[in-house]
Please model this.
Amino acid sequence: MKPIRVLVVDDSATMRSLIREMLLRDPAIEVAGEAGDALEARAAIKALNPDVITLDVEMPKMNGLEFLDKIMRLRPAPVIMVSSVTASGASAAIKALEIGAFDCVAKPGPGEGDVFARALIDKVRAAAGSLARFAAGRTRSAGSCQTSLPVAADYCPDGRLVAIGASTGGVEAITAIMSEFPENCPPTIITQHMPPVFTKSFAERLDRRCRPNVSEALDGAPLLPGHVYLAPGGTTHLAISPTPPHRCKLLAGEPVNGHRPSVDVLLKSVAKAVSAKAVGVILTGMGRDGAEGLLAMRRAGARTLAQDEASCLIYGMPKAAFECGGAEMQVPLSRIASEILRFSSSEQKETSDALRVSVARTHRR
Model:
């Protein structure tokens, strides 16, 4: 097989050398070239035609976000943003994902070299697998929170919880869904695979742009209508308390399916705590984290959805959830919000009750 050709763009020669060293641990990856700023990178892209680009958020002459925007408009390609683990770096990384970056990775701290290398290699491999989408000119943009769908206009919740899991491509998908949620949405708990600090920035960005109140989950926070809780990245798992009134629980523990927070941990806790009084959703992402948890929810009587292949950036997690029987249906991203609201509305419950009565009468005849 042809090697995956990567262009490394960073203004720091030390960082370029580190990224090169990490990538070359994988024999399937070739570092085709390096660039210290956007001008050098533009020339290198034309000359080398790389499969994947790693791009520093903060660079001289033209910052990474400006350059990324030009790439997405003029020559869409899989770009992995490399960001510092600071509030400003995390905010910029979230913006980059909305512009069209494939994924982001945090620059390593002391002793984090091996973790950084594994994450970077995994993301480069996944990005190379998405080349066909970018070659077809696929660009990505976050949903506008000005959307007002009829299903949300007269929405009346029926007391269910909503639990969502996502990974690569999840920032776009979650933003699109939240932009269609009404102010009185069901209590919604989300695990998105993301480095520490990044999740706080993502939650703040969603809170500014969407109708519900969105925050990073705090241990003991009550699950309230009109509120969305995002699992903190990197250090704990998010679950919900087993007895009502249900609250967020942040759990220490080793990574599950290679992730902390893990989607499986969240969904299994929801299945155990509320059984059928929930809606579970698996969105775009690598691997199979969440498949077992969604299956547990479905077996407990909850309604379950998976994002369909055509609208996924990476059809890994939704595929695993559907193939194991966890997802009762696959739905395009554009329909997921309306399906969640339909499954969790009191009107839907009344319709279901009426249908059961009708079926019972038919059988009695």
